[in-house]
Specification:
Helix content is 20%, strand content 30%. By secondary structure, the chain is an alpha+beta fold. The N terminus is likely disordered.
Length: 992
């Protein structure tokens, strides 16, 4: 696994660490949304004026809502005094009180208050101890000259804490913070080199779980710096730009103000997370780093990772990590902590059977919809709501009463009352005439209820991921975070994370518990399951102490539990269904009508764009909304708006077809049983493609007067047929290296060619709207198909069917066999289907089984057609200019398209999703590919080798002096022929 994810919690000082550390203070001792401003070395004067008077040495921390004193001796507790509980703040000895001690304690600060917290006595992490009653504490600063300034600061912060409205408190504290930031600037003496050039400096906050720390961000030509205003936990954080591997813009509190920086490729935990006060500052700093990285690191998108995951280069675990990262989930933000699914539903068996589908959770449903009975109770409550609020809106109820009654067994609790099924029926005397099932009716009721709900509309009163849920799982390794979130207390012992099975059961049955899991459940660090810190987490009602998490019977140890959980996540069942859960959490079922239909709607404040805090004028309302956003949890950023493709697993993966890989002839398989294909294996092709960068030019011949437009090769490889814009079809002998024939059908350009099975007939398409059949044996035109109203741009052939694309905006499917002998009766081609487009079609390709066809138009649209029904499956506008070429992958799961815009786009056939896009600086006119790597011909004449899964160009091979216009590859993937605008055909060999 990557770096331990628990490093995100490095800000907390855990027991095992702090026994060897002097400093026990951390920002987690502050309240949420509180700032730590400054510290002063001081003594706490106890029993002042008495014989027992003594001084406790330590550090006085001035924070925006409290005063914290950290004694040097770990046996003494940390003292926290909330400013709102202070009765009087001043210099000790003022106003007559204890005046005779004024000289003795010249640097004294007196705090009179009604409540104080004692924390981490003997350095033990435990719930805070509270002492109430009027008390006075005196603190003596080492630098007495700072007493007046400190007192003035405390009085100012005290006034802010005592304001009636929370919004006014926040506004005043923010003004104090901004004033402090404005009076300071980044210390340029801390640059690593005197030659560094400053690009920009701005105010920002470093984000860690639950807390933020204000300061100054600075970027130079070599380094990113952050200098905390308070110098905590260290005076400077710095990251060399050369070490940065990934950067992401982030939402923080649903505001586009965050920036997260990673110095590793795959880790979940970042190296720094900054939140800016101005979006422009964030965007400018991002621009500087992105500009530097542009020539060093390839940018990754969700679609690029999808292709890697589909092809097996990423595990399910790795893919979910990447999706979480791209969807603004971060270990540094507990309101957006990475979310993982429950995948196992069996926590009672002694053995975990991963071959049994019943072992697994239904990944097509959110947790709230997994329990049918619980969901029906929600739906029935919706029915009662509609009946009581708007009875006139349910005219169909009289038709469904008996069916509804039958669908709800036993008694049902509604609005606190227990009702029999008959009581739920508004009109029980009516017979049931509703044609759909009870579940369909209940779904209709739920959707109707949702539409009738007052704003804000939502289905669940809690979220599947929130800071409380994250710390519920991680309390054993991050107890100080739980204490911070819950005002110094642990949760009730019976509500703690005590048992895997209990937690799963509550997620299924609980009225408000819909939580998913976190990545730790599929990692390799068991510490979150074990109470290794020996924390006192309370006693349950049964009398047992909360200790280690109780594991299911099939887990022999915490290590075994995590290993089997990982095995389950990577199992065939989960691989085949994980896309359904992705649709819910990151995809098209996250919002809108699809979310309503999937019972997947949460409070609007959890969604990106659900609320505009900047437009909220009421400061109290704004603070309340921000608090709810940060504490309730947030829905991930939506990454996909169409159904997510399924992973390619052995169960669904098709074998490679014995095709030539030529876009024009790949779907014209030879007759079965040919011996030359028996030894052809997937492994040999994979090996050839892995060495495709070692293509070397073997020979070249100029045989045309204009650009070459098509290439077809006989099975023996001895004869090469080419078409050209010079209107000729030529036959070239590979053995004699001589031009054997030159045929002209008209004075118009020919656009493509292919060989029919048996190598007896060459078919050519022409700009004169016709398709020509040429007999090789008789050396004459054999047939002519006059099938279009404009130029024919591309043809394919399979199983006595011809597929022709034309600039007349159609693709036509023809059935028929051409005449066997020239001069015999011309065969009548039958038009089987006409696939209509809005604009001219420039290219087509067939799937291996010829059940699917992909077409590309001059306006950049790729359409995938189901040939069995002659209907369009998907229409994808994926290029900004003409689509030059398309081809299916060998397993027919993907379509690759190349366009005038220089892009190579990979489309998932099942969903129509654009899952990968790579760009070059010039158009790619044609290509060959094996599903992972691409060999393309560019406008400049180069051959480019692309690594689609790695997202990069692996090699550039010099070729033609003009654009490469067509390509052919043999079955062994060891020989390539290219044609170009320079009128040449080039023969390439793979040098192994």
């Amino acid at each position: 696994m990557a770096r331990n994810m628990h490093q995100a919690f490095a800000g907390a000082t855990l027991v095992g660490e702090t026994q060897h550390r002097r400093e026990r203070f951390s920002l987690l001792l502050l309240n949420l949304e509180e700032y730590y401003f400054e510290q002063h070395t001081a003594n706490h004067i106890q029993h002042k004026g008495s014989q027992n008077e003594r001084k406790i040495r330590g550090s006085l921390k001035i924070c925006s809502k409290s005063v914290i004193f950290e004694p040097d001796a770990i046996s003494q507790p940390i003292i926290k005094i909330p400013l709102r509980d202070c009765i009087k703040i001043g210099k000790h000895g003022e106003n007559g009180a204890n005046r005779h001690f004024a000289k003795a304690i010249s640097g004294g600060i007196s705090l009179i208050f009604s409540q104080v917290y004692f924390i981490k006595e003997h350095n033990i992490v435990a719930p805070y101890k509270i002492e109430r009653g009027t008390m006075e504490y005196v603190f003596e600063l080492d630098v007495s000259g700072k007493v007046e300034d400190v007192v003035e600061t405390l009085l100012q912060l005290h006034r802010a804490s005592c304001l009636d409205k929370l919004g006014d408190q926040t506004a005043m504290i923010t003004a104090i913070l901004q004033s402090r930031l404005a009076r300071t600037s980044f210390d340029k003496n801390r640059f690593q080199s005197v030659s560094e050039k400053l690009h920009m400096e701005c105010k920002a906050e470093m984000v860690t779980p639950l807390v933020t720390n204000p300061g100054h961000a600075c970027i130079t030509d070599t380094t990113l710096y952050f200098q905390p205003l308070n110098g905590y936990p260290k005076p400077m954080v710095q990251i060399t730009l050369h070490d940065i591997r990934r950067i992401y813009k982030r939402r923080h509190g649903l505001m586009p103000l965050g920036l997260e920086v990673f110095c590793t490729e795959d880790d979940l935990c970042s190296d720094v997370y900054l939140k800016f006060y101005e979006r422009q500052d964030r965007d400018d700093l991002y621009f500087y780093i992105a500009t530097y990285l542009e020539h060093h690191v390839a940018e990754r998108t969700a679609e690029g990772y999808t292709l890697q995951w589909q092809r097996g280069l990423l595990s399910n675990y790795q893919y979910l990590l990447h999706l979480n990262t791209l969807a603004d989930r971060s270990c540094n933000d507990l309101s957006q902590y990475p979310v993982f699914p429950w995948v196992v539903s069996d926590y009672s068996s002694s053995e975990l059977d991963l071959s049994n589908p019943g072992t697994f959770r239904d990944l097509s449903k959110p947790v709230g919809a997994l329990n049918k009975q619980r969901l029906e109770r929600l739906l029935v409550r919706g029915l009662r709501f509609l009946m009581s609020e708007q009875p006139g809106s349910l005219g169909c109820l009289k038709l469904v009463s008996s069916r509804l009654r039958a669908s709800i067994p036993g008694e049902t609790e509604v609005s606190g009352r227990t009702l029999a099924p008959s009581a739920l029926c508004p009109l029980p005397s009516f017979p049931c005439e509703f044609s759909c099932s009870p579940s369909a009716f209940l779904l209709t009721i739920q959707e109707t209820r949702y539409q009738e709900m007052p704003e804000p509309k939502f289905m669940y009163g809690s979220h599947y991921s929130s800071p409380g849920y994250v710390l519920f799982y991680l309390v054993r390794i991050a107890p100080e975070y739980m204490l911070c979130l819950q005002n110094g207390r642990f949760d009730n012992a019976d509500r703690m994370f005590n048992s895997i099975a209990e937690t799963w059961k509550n997620c299924l049955d609980g009225a408000t518990d819909f939580k998913e899991l976190i990545p730790e459940f599929y990692g390799d660090d068991v510490s979150f399951l074990v109470n290794s810190l020996k924390l006192d987490l309370g006693k349950r009602q049964g009398g047992q102490m909360v200790d280690d998490v109780e594991l299911p019977p099939w887990a022999q140890s915490p290590e075994d539990f995590l290993q089997k959980s990982r095995d389950a996540l990577e199992s065939d069942y989960v691989s085949e269904h994980l896309h359904e859960w992705i649709d819910l959490v990151f995809g098209y079922k996250q919002k809108g009508r699809d979310a309503v239909g999937a019972h997947n709607v949460f409070h609007p404040l959890t969604y990106e764009g659900g609320v505009d805090l900047n437009s909220t004028e009421d400061p109290d309302e704004k603070v309340a909304m921000l608090t709810q956003i940060l504490e309730f949890g947030q829905t991930p950023k939506q990454l996909f708006v169409t159904p997510h493709p399924r992973r390619i697993t052995p169960k669904f993966k098709r074998l490679f077809q014995p095709s030539s890989y030529n876009a024009s002839t790949a779907d014209s398989p030879v007759s079965p049983g040919e011996e030359s294909f028996e030894d052809l294996t997937e492994e040999s092709r994979t090996l050839a493609w892995s060495n495709i960068t070692r293509l070397q030019l073997h020979e070249q011949h100029k045989i045309h007067k204009e650009a070459v437009t098509g290439i077809a090769v006989s099975r023996s490889g001895s004869s090469v047929f080419t078409t050209s814009q010079d209107s000729t079809l030529k036959m070239f002998s590979k053995e004699s290296k001589m031009l054997q024939r030159s045929i002209s059908f008209s004075n118009m350009a020919l656009s493509s060619c292919l060989l029919l099975p048996g190598d007896a007939t060459v078919v050519s398409s022409s700009w004169d709207n016709n398709v020509y059949f040429y007999s090789i044996a008789f050396g004459r035109r054999q047939d002519t198909l006059m099938g279009h109203d404009d130029a024919v741009s591309k043809i394919c052939w399979h199983d006595n069917r011809l597929y022709s694309a034309s600039w007349d905006s159609t693709v036509k499917v023809w059935s028929g066999v051409p005449a066997e002998m020239p001069g015999s009766r011309r065969h009548q081609f039958d038009l089987l289907a006409e696939l209509e487009h809005d604009v001219s079609v420039d290219t087509i390709s067939l799937s291996a089984a010829s059940t699917l066809l992909a077409s590309g138009t001059k306006e950049g649209t790729v359409t995938i057609w189901d040939l069995t029904a002659a209907t369009g499956l998907h229409q994808i506008p994926c290029h900004s200019g003409t689509v030059c070429d398309t081809a299916f992958s060998p397993d027919s799961r993907h379509v690759l398209s190349a366009g005038e815009d220089g892009c190579l786009n990979v489309i998932d056939v099942q969903t129509g999703m654009l899952i990968s896009s790579m760009t070059s600086d010039e158009p790619q006119r044609c290509f060959l590919w094996d599903g992972n790597s691409v060999l393309s011909g560019s406008q400049s004449g180069e051959l480019l080798v692309w690594d689609l899964l790695g997202g990069k160009i692996r090699e550039r091979i010099q070729g033609h002096t003009g654009a490469v216009t067509c390509m052919w590859m043999n079955e062994q993937c060891s020989r390539v022929i290219t044609g170009g605008e320079d009128r040449q055909i080039m023969f390439w060999k793979l040098q192994c």
